[in-house]
């Protein structure tokens, strides 16, 4: 056990799983970086943000495969390889690039098992970066996990911390279905205690990162961190919040969400993805349909506006949900002082 | 002209496969018109020698990816005909439990990675299958079938590049029947397939897709190259489809005498029969008895399919995931 | 004079606590303390608890200040009789602090001896070896699903008198997760292996629950190496056991199931904190843990009962034995302490469940210190 960054936790999960299972291979653009360059340095990058650093050196060119900038071919190749005996981990550098290869995800890997009458297994992981906060603008900042959550046959993981990232990635690699694994690019340097051993966190099991009796906060990915901070500050003013990190949007732990809603009757959903047809809308529908009688206040959603992600830092900071907006939303639905259970 | 130095068993199996495809498709053409078969059906009649000639060089250890016009590839790769027919009828006893249908017939145990409803869907998958064969060192080769239409898809062109970059044991078989849906290749395909192969540094072969022996020999060279670790290649197969893009297509974009001439002069089954009987390899009686056996098999497959139960409500929800 | 000086260390509230904040001192330098007097409030991320004095004496020195965050086991103060000289107190503190100095996040300096990994027959076993004065060392053996951190209230006070060693059984904590057949004999072999590896010929054994059964098996296998046995709610004395507890420990993965499963450990179920549950859950997620716990459960607690009963082996031992049991033990019934030979002292503690060393720390430590000193 030692402090590890989100980046190190992911790297360690990949390394340990590649040591454990020779069928696990990395595929992606510049996952090593430098092949064919005049410097002769075949691992000059280790991923565009250094997440896969050192893996080429340890496992060599047959296990760490740099690709041309050619998402449709290599994401599709990952699907074909998974259906025929390998367990690929493909990197789609930024999830925004899904536009170049969605067919291979949506129509191929996601549907093999069902279309083929349950006879296919497609054990692959697509690791991909998401999220605003780096002034990376409209084509490198989206939080597109709802797009994948919408597609039956895919599992969708959005880890909220280094501990979560390692355990969920190991689970993803061992899973026999296609898994889309969302890494928030702003979190790579976040640190916490992460076991050195291999461990796995099951999918579809939400994590309660805070417990309080007044308001239920549901947050996804990096938003969990902000929701925790909001919950800690609200506790000081006597409002107790439960924070739910669903961990996976598909499968979704509806039971835990509904249990918590039944306890508090007040819900704030914090989501970094676009508001229309997004996770917050999906969760709101779930709660409205299944827990209407438990609700004591309207469901509140803290989300970006329905715009592309802007470039200028002033605009971007207005775009992404922040702690103050979460706190305001919670206050707007929190019970009167006398009724609080904290 | 290719020689007839082919194992007699391979020839016999191949003739039977071609005949099975022909009868399977002709029967579907009739049955589809009755309205009993749901969805889309794309027939492979006229192209039989291509799928069979290529797959006669393969075993269950090799992988193919097919197209929306996939019945022929499935039969050539050894997928069970009765289970295919039941699938096309949407029955629970179908090869995919009635959940795939004509465009998604697959049998991974036979190295058949699926027909594919998406034009250009297969070539990237075949890069992956070839990667598996290469890294798992199982000696297998992966073959992508695709049409002249799919040859214009970005996925196909990216896959030609990736296969060359990764030096994969892959073969890209362009089944060039001259039409992508209703638009002719002469309009839609710029340059040539040969130049495209050269553009990706890839070996190029071509053959007559109505001549089993030519396809068998030419594809065999490409496949053996791949098997020896010499990298990917393209096999350009010239052929013609006898029916429309899908059943119900009246082919108003094609002169009817063109199709009639194809059927009259370039029938792969007739060619095979003439050559092998003239060479004394098979008697007409022997081939006739294969034809009869196939007729019986197709008749049985249709009868069984029609009698088989439909999938039921619980099947709707099963097999979306291995576990969820 | 060291034997009259008692270190007051950052306590461990719950299995998961790794550090705590000294919220405030409830006493001042020079105050006279009795066992059970509240001396400080300790905050963790989840709970705040009054910390009670484990000994009688005078608070001679506050080593930590209010607001300091310290690792569990770090020295926060020193209690000693009034007649102990300041120089002795200084030298005691210097000796205590002489092990690894770790700077934690908040910049506070904490003193801890870190556990190390040692090789026992090809298995990596995590050991915490606290060096005390000369004398017969003591080896602490934890129970099913626990680890050496369960002795954090116990080990430092014992280390004042003698070398005190704790370790993680195979399948537990930081040790390898392979357990052979999971039997008490196999685990006892590892316990004796720890003594071999650390060059200890003879030791007092303190075992809790399954660890008690392991201690009996070790004493039966190598009687010449065991100076005495202190068994806390030991396994193996009767067939009854809380089968649900065993099943939950081996099988539960979800937070609420683990929480429910841990409650029977304590007379006061409020002691089951979020951290404790999370720590157990994180432990159980590690590769090999579930298989190890299943194997141990199958060997020792099949079908909701105890197998491999060791009562007769215990009765045949010549080494001195004492037994400590929580009156409210909901895992292994205290009734199993009955009908033992008279030479075995049995102490039943009120206000304690299956973990008296955590719920009645001072009383258990007192019994252990006295018993070890006498043998």
UniProtKB/TrEMBL annotation, chain A:
UniProt protein name: Alpha-ketoacid dehydrogenase subunit beta
GO MF annotations in UniProt: oxidoreductase activity
Species per Swiss-Prot/TrEMBL record: Ameyamaea chiangmaiensis
Start and end residues of each Transketolase-like pyrimidine-binding domain: 4-190
Alphabetized InterPro entries for the sequence: THDP-binding (IPR029061), Transketo_C/PFOR_II (IPR009014), Transketolase-like_Pyr-bd (IPR005475), Transketolase_C (IPR033248)
Pfam families: Transket_pyr (PF02779), Transketolase_C (PF02780)
Organism placement in taxonomy: Bacteria, Pseudomonadati, Pseudomonadota, Alphaproteobacteria, Acetobacterales
Keywords from the named record: Oxidoreductase
Automatic annotation (TrEMBL), chain B:
Taxonomic placement: Bacteria, Pseudomonadati, Pseudomonadota, Alphaproteobacteria, Acetobacterales
This protein's name: Thiamine pyrophosphate-dependent dehydrogenase E1 component subunit alpha
Sequence ranges assigned to domain Dehydrogenase E1 component in this UniProt record: 17-312
Required cofactor names: thiamine diphosphate
Catalytic activity from the UniProt record: N(6)-[(R)-lipoyl]-L-lysyl-[protein] + pyruvate + H(+) = N(6)-[(R)-S(8)-acetyldihydrolipoyl]-L-lysyl-[protein] + CO2
PANTHER family assigned to the protein according to its UniProt record, in alphabetical order: PYRUVATE DEHYDROGENASE E1 COMPONENT SUBUNIT ALPHA (PTHR11516:SF60), PYRUVATE DEHYDROGENASE E1 COMPONENT, ALPHA SUBUNIT BACTERIAL AND ORGANELLAR (PTHR11516)
Claim: Oxidoreductase is one of the keywords in the record: yes
Keywords carried by this UniProt record: Oxidoreductase, Thiamine pyrophosphate
GO MF terms, alphabetically ordered: pyruvate dehydrogenase (acetyl-transferring) activity
Role description: The pyruvate dehydrogenase complex catalyzes the overall conversion of pyruvate to acetyl-CoA and CO(2). It contains multiple copies of three enzymatic components: pyruvate dehydrogenase (E1), dihydrolipoamide acetyltransferase (E2) and lipoamide dehydrogenase (E3).
Alphabetized SUPFAM superfamilies for the sequence: Thiamin diphosphate-binding fold (THDP-binding) (SSF52518)
Keyword Phosphoprotein: no
Pfam families, per database record: E1_dh
UniProt record, GO biological process: pyruvate decarboxylation to acetyl-CoA
UniProt source species: Ameyamaea chiangmaiensis
TrEMBL record, chain C:
Entries under CDD domains matching the protein: lipoyl_domain
Classification via InterPro entries: AB_hydrolase_1, AB_hydrolase_fold, AB_hydrolase_sf, Biotin_lipoyl, Single_hybrid_motif
Lipoyl-binding domain ranges (all copies): 5-80
Molecular function as annotated in GO: monoacylglycerol lipase activity; transferase activity
UniProt keywords, alphabetically: Transferase
Organism: Ameyamaea chiangmaiensis
Name of the protein described by the UniProt record: Acetoin dehydrogenase dihydrolipoyllysine-residue acetyltransferase subunit
PROSITE patterns the record matches: BIOTINYL_LIPOYL
GO cellular component assignments: membrane
Biological process, per Gene Ontology: acylglycerol catabolic process
Keyword Transferase listed: yes
